[in-house]
Amino acid sequence: MLSDTIAAISTATGEAAISVIRLSGSKALAIASKAFKLPAKVVPRRAHLVQVLDENGAGLDSGVLLHFQGPASYTGEDVIEFHGHGGVLVTQRVLERVLACGARAAEPGEFTQRAFLNGKMDLTQAEAVMDLIHAQSTLALRAANEQLGGAIGREASQMQQMLVPVLAHIEAYIDFPDEDISPETGADLLRRIDAVQAHARKLLATSEQGRILRHGARTVISGAPNVGKSSLLNLLLGFERAIVSPTAGTTRDTIEEIIQVHGIPLRLVDTAGLRDSQDAIERIGIERTQRELERADLILEVLDASQSLEATKRLEVPAGLSERHLVILNKTDLGLHPGWESEKAAIRVSCVQNEGIEALRNAIREVIAKAGPLASDHPIAINARHQAAFQRSVERLAAARAAIESNEAPEFIALELRESLQALGDVIGQVDVEQILDVIFSSFCIGK
């Protein structure tokens, strides 16, 4: 399949000013010469006005064609891009014409996969392409750009370079079995291993933050009925997403929306009010609220500031989430009941008068920052696959360290070091496991 010339629409489906159709492969220019009316000479990286011709020579569309000659292209192969009119039908007809002239329809992510296989980028950079497309906040965008620039790949490569001399020393002792590892040499090897472990743990500390930046912090708005949960959701969103009514129990199902707070993506979840209810549908909503609380990264407990502390039913915060729990006293425009004066940490808010929202945003940022260094402080945020590989590398290094301290056979030490190196190689794609590559690239858009 790698010898095929592939083609796909690289712009989103729908009407637009321009659509882009991309070809990649050794026969890209030859196929283009059949599908398009080209000038006598196509100059690489120069825009050419061309016409698309159907099988009878009639015009289908006209637009700009660009030729990127390999290896100086995105995929490392010859690439043709046609920028035509952005209608749904005309774009599809042009693609069908290109396919009829000898191209194969590209699989999801196949252009970027070819870029990886042709050495144009490492695996972390390939993953960053989709992170960049899916970024929902400025911090997520910055982290994706850092990764696309090779930041994580450089870190993994640097650790590999630090480990290779250690493995070389151990393998030298394998070649001379009568020699024992001297205490001085052993201490130096341990120091090198500790340095690599420290490097890996620093990256592992960014995994939780990476998850939040990529998928958003799951922020559950919870509380008793009619305390202003839906009003708070609407105020944070900036538009009316949830129905607001003085009737208790209006919200019966969870409502999800994504916003950005100080560059951090939040997946806001408005939930049904917690109370004892005889309504079967409302009870289902309350059960879903309980499940959402258990999955939350952050809980916003909304209370009615005008009601007494004794009359207020408080939320039972799930274990382990006490540090990610913010208390919000809403309806301060109706007056703050004296009983709430002792709640110094609670955030005073009035959804009616739009007061206290900036204080709430700042508090949210501080709570999320406890998950690890924010992208503004640390430009690297690893994903779950990187986390598993770095963790495996650390574990194998720990085993190698223990083997050195126990004066075990060099063969066992070398085996652990090789597995640690392999784990680091998995991060940047120095693997021969096609299944890993298929899983990663199958999540890409067709045409990317």
| Mean pLDDT, all residues | 83
- The global form is flat
β-sheet strand percentage = 15-25%
| Strand/helix succession | EEHEEEEHEHHHHHHEHEEHEEEHHHH
Low-confidence stretches: 247-252
- CATH topology call of the largest domain: Rossmann fold
The CATH homologous superfamily name of the largest domain equals P-loop containing nucleotide triphosphate hydrolases
Major beta sheet summary = 7 strands, mixed
The CATH class designation of the largest domain is: Alpha Beta
- The count of helical stretches stands at 14
Number of extended strands: 13
* Number of separate domains: 3
Task: Bin the helical content.
Answer: 40-55%
Q: End-to-end span in angstroms?
A: 17 Å
Secondary-structure-based class equals: alpha/beta
CATH architectural type of the largest domain: 3-Layer(aba) Sandwich
Radius of gyration: 29 Å
Read across the widest sheet, the strand sequence of neighbours is: 3-4-5-6-2-1-7
Describe this structure in words.
A hairpin with a 2-residue loop joins strand 9 and strand 10 (264-270). The protein starts with 5 loop residues before the first strand and ends in a 7-residue tail after the last helix. It is flat and about 85 Å long. The strands form two sheets. Strands 3-4-5-6-2-1-7 form a seven-stranded mixed β-sheet. The longest helix is centred in the middle third of the chain and has 25 residues, at 151-175. It has helices at 28-35, 88-100, 110-117, 123-134, 138-148, 151-175, 183-204, 207-215, 229-237, 280-295, 357-369, 384-405, 410-428, 434-441, and strands at residues 6-9, 16-24, 36-37, 48-53, 59-68, 79-86, 104-105, 217-223, 255-261, 264-270, 298-304, 325-330, 347-348. It has 14 helices and 13 strands. Residues 247-252 have low confidence and may be disordered. Helices cover 44% and strands 17% of the residues. The chain folds into three domains: 6-121, Gyrase A, domain 2, CATH 3.30.1360.120; 124-206 and 381-428, tRNA modification GTPase MnmE domain 2 (Four Helix Bundle (Hemerythrin (Met), subunit A), Up-down Bundle), CATH 1.20.120.430; 215-369, P-loop containing nucleotide triphosphate hydrolases (Rossmann fold), CATH 3.40.50.300. By secondary structure, it is of the alpha/beta class.
